Amino acid sequence: MVEKRTPMQVKDAVAAVLQHAGSLASEKVPLEDSYGRILAEPLTATSAVPPFDRSPYDGYAIRSADSAGASGTSRVTFRVIDHIGAGEVSHKRLNAFEAIRIMTGAQLPEGADAVVMFEQTVEEGDTFTLRKPFEKLENVSLQGEDVAKDEVVIESGNVINPGTIALLATFGYSQPTVAKLPTVGILSTGTELLGVEDALEPGKIRNSNGPMIMAQLKRMGIACKMYGMSIDNLEESYQAVKKAAQETDCLITTGGVSVGDFDFLPAIYERLGAKVLFNKVAMRPGSVTTVAVADGRFLFGLSGNPSACFTGFELFVRPALLQMMGAQKPFVPHTTALLAEDFEKANPFTRFIRAVYDGEEVRPAGFNKSNAVSSIARGNALIVLPGGSRGFQKGDRVDVLLLGVEEGAAKWMN
Amino acid sequence: MVEKRTPMQVKDAVAAVLQHAGSLASEKVPLEDSYGRILAEPLTATSAVPPFDRSPYDGYAIRSADSAGASGTSRVTFRVIDHIGAGEVSHKRLNAFEAIRIMTGAQLPEGADAVVMFEQTVEEGDTFTLRKPFEKLENVSLQGEDVAKDEVVIESGNVINPGTIALLATFGYSQPTVAKLPTVGILSTGTELLGVEDALEPGKIRNSNGPMIMAQLKRMGIACKMYGMSIDNLEESYQAVKKAAQETDCLITTGGVSVGDFDFLPAIYERLGAKVLFNKVAMRPGSVTTVAVADGRFLFGLSGNPSACFTGFELFVRPALLQMMGAQKPFVPHTTALLAEDFEKANPFTRFIRAVYDGEEVRPAGFNKSNAVSSIARGNALIVLPGGSRGFQKGDRVDVLLLGVEEGAAKWMN
């Protein structure tokens, strides 16, 4: 007798997972190790940016009023009384028709309210002339024009990207506070599994899901514990899962969630007293994907089929881990694109098809069954085709999940 | 007298850089360390995938011919003679109206040519009945249907993504051959620069470009040598740059490339005998970006302005490093999107505006001058507005460089 399972819609399944994602603690890390981590407190400006009125160009600081009436036929002459490099401060104050030579980024001297670029002058000895009037604050970068002191520049929950690093450095945060990384374990089930270094044997295949998930976690900046491969025996599997679940915030298993004679995970979840959020999702591949929660810890039961496993990770594990870290953007990035070829086969379940997205069009990346491996590597996106009775045609605008687009483009822009 | 420089178009400047990017050697690394590296040899299938005909479902392997004529009123009965779990091989051969219970992923037994799912049977003791005929090879995953033995599955020059890891594991590559990582140095110039831990002083700012570039490199999986900050003195700067250039494949400097009195890099390039590929690019920000080559090594002279520095890195340094590693996709990923607001100001140079891309629209990320820092952190893309006399309107379709989209999305798909 086969157990009947009621499929949950993908969107509802994702929401169910997020509802159960608790919060991890925070920690301080050195700035140079903080790239890719998630800010656990707001990034507040400890000073204005710029911290003082400064020159955006190499040129001369002047009093704008002195340039009034300047023209090609009536040039105004200024006398240069000082010279400031970036990082230096002039101790002189400008009087009428005086100027101070100033470099990009240097603080404007007392009395000056405009900057003349070198290209706008004719220099002669320690004087120069101008042929046009300058407005008050022309060519001046004003204190605080980018960021005001005490402003919250980046909210908590944002990923620390290279720009965030620049801001943290600007404000002197040498030890920013970030969300702790979750402790994640991977346990691959299946007596058919060999290690990567093993020679093939009849009926067996090498474990590809474990290393793949390790890389999916690494893409998120998260390390993991590998629990190796468990054998398909209920008691031993139960003990292995129980131990791994106790040692992690989130245990990912592959295989063992279907209705086969050695699919022990449903029984294990029951023995653990885990709450099963769903054990069937209206999606292909990966309809058997199961997510359970025990003692506040996640148990992700991904399919043993590589494509299904890959998709299950990105749809459910990724947002759960990001939410645990307090991320403001827990979902897989997505866009829409034009389908580059027909996809006639109708399916009641939402399909996720590994695909190549080129910035405009999206095309299936090849052999497309749940047990496919090659297309996972060849693609940089997943086409999303909602479940329903009709197929899809070339030129239809479809949803696309972006997973690998960051690798780069083969061509420059048109 | 200000030196006149002739601006090069961005596209030509990128091409000039790529022309000078040599090839790095390759090395073997453990599979678990290979994520994000670039394949330095084609990934060839050491076996077929699947390696044998196998069952994609939990059910019964049968001879399809035996099911001929089966119907709801004339059910055909099969006798179960063996039971195979995944990884096991049956040593029995099917005779007429015999079946073998088989689990997902298990090798098809001798004589079988179709698989019946549990849901399609009515079981009773060691027999079951069917109500429909099965075709030859129905519900069978054929040996090699995903990948044929000896097939080149992924070409050299591709980034090793999680799917590639799955393939490498499948084929037993525990030590894949990847391109060596370039040795990259960062040297920030400018007497106005303080360290991240320093207290602010009049006229000075903390060095944000160095840490930012370090993070931009880290996003590419590349570590760097920090050469600290050089003072604005020609001789000392020359010695510092010379030493750093000798120790690296690629030296990135920030600042010192403009026409200021302490902008020594043009003179240093000359003393080093470096070939300057360009020292002016028709772009905002970053028009002073300079790229030179000395002894086959790159010298990237990025602007000291944070936005310009960030953009210069992504436009020029990134593709150069990727090309050195033999990458097939050296360019920044790009797409097009609808401009979410007017951008009236005309400019003869191509503008790169740090922006927020939501999958459909793109909107400037805030304060937008070359010395801006905040918008770098707030954005996940760069809007590209080609140089020309006109402005751009809300709704115009514009080119977008994707730099940070991988962080995630705040919302699920519509």
TrEMBL record, chains A, B:
Pathway the protein contributes to: Cofactor biosynthesis; molybdopterin biosynthesis
CDD domains: MoeA (cd00887)
Entry EC number(s): 2.10.1.1
Reactions the enzyme catalyzes: adenylyl-molybdopterin + molybdate = Mo-molybdopterin + AMP + H(+)
One Pfam family here: MoeA_C
Residues of the MoaB/Mog domain: 185-323
Highest taxon listed in the record's lineage: Bacteria
InterPro entries in UniProt: MoaB/Mog-like_dom_sf, MoaB/Mog_dom, MoeA-like, MoeA_C_domain_IV, MoeA_C_domain_IV_sf, MoeA_linker/N, MoeA_linker/N_sf
Protein keywords: Magnesium, Metal-binding, Molybdenum, Molybdenum cofactor biosynthesis, Transferase
General function of this protein: Catalyzes the insertion of molybdate into adenylated molybdopterin with the concomitant release of AMP.
Family: Belongs to the MoeA family.
Name of the protein in question: Molybdopterin molybdenumtransferase
Native source organism of the sequence: Planococcus salinarum
